[in-house]
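Input.
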Amino acid sequence: MLLTIARDGDLRLRDIATACHITERTAQGVVTDLEQAGYLSRERDGRRTRYTLHLDGRLHHPAEAHLPIRGLLHLLTPDTSEH
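Output.
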């Protein structure tokens, strides 16, 4: 889900759920968990919600606690700067 939000922070929750192949209710729960863990924040903009990732936040598992979220997303996204 972090990857989906990283690609477009303006997606509706319904679109995030569809992209992740989960229900909208499950997506809501995951977004809430991610927000409480400090991985993202939500801001209302009229009727829409804007999601902002905290890329300098650290992963919580002890084996990866030294890695920032930015590093994880970098591993999962293609580097288009070489093309």
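The radius of gyration is 13 Å.
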